[in-house]
Design a protein that fits this description.
It contains eight helices and no strands. It is mostly helical and 146 residues long. The chain is elongated.
Amino acid sequence: MTETANARKIAFATFVRRALEDARAMRAWSGTEVSRRTGVSRQTINRWVRGDWASDPEAERVVAFCEGLGLNPAAAFAALGWDRAATPRATPTPPPMDPDVEALLRRLVDPNVSDAEKFHIRETIRYLAYRPTLPVDVRNRGKQAG
């Protein structure tokens, strides 16, 4: 392996590792959740983190990984040494975050908050995120009956 190829692997592995650490710290996402949201298998992500690939990662997977995490794919492409002259696509500005959600995220990364409290926050968020929503007509029935 050439020195350049090894440097590219290290740079991309560092990019992926940081993206995963941010997803865990800021969003409380597990590796499985990152895989689900990006459409990139855990095995592929683990190979990227280890720099264990013989040929370059597929551009489509790199883009899917980045977009699933809200990252600019140009940063990943730069780590891989791909087409540095190309103009990076503008990433859409994320909508403003609700202040209550920001407060929860701060608590999740605060070292002074107990693990038990962090667990409770994560479980509550998971419950709310995945509970079934009622159809609009069912929700409005309660309002009409009063």
